[in-house]
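Polyketide cyclase: structure, please.
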Amino acid sequence: MWEYEHSVETTATPEALWHHWSTVAQWPEWNEGVEKIEIDGPFQAGSVFTMTPPGDEPLRMRLTEVVPGKLFTDEMDAGDFVVRTVHSLEPVTPGTTRVTYRTEISGPAAEQVGPQIGPAITADFPDVVAALVRRAEG
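Here you go.
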């Protein structure tokens, strides 16, 4: 398995952060890694979304877990490997929230594929989380 995690603490409320996560159509406004996105249903477990990174092919992903105000997990199943990203919110102190993005690549091909694609998938996490925080604090 390959894994990577990035966390930031913010004064943004979990409600403000959650609003930006759950309003999928607005992701391209604050996430430079998303050129276009469409979700086939509500922001809940089982819904599928198609995300197009700038200059790349669209990726189909499924929401596998959604706990409003706390976390959501998306998953891309590529057959011999699965890319799973958990996006979570955790109160640290009154008025402070920790935002964490954690990606795991698992499956039979994970040891081979993970080191190749994992860093590319997660390279923008610091920028994406910073943009989310700025927007939610605003």
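Notes: Residues 75 and 87 are 11 Å apart (CA to CA).
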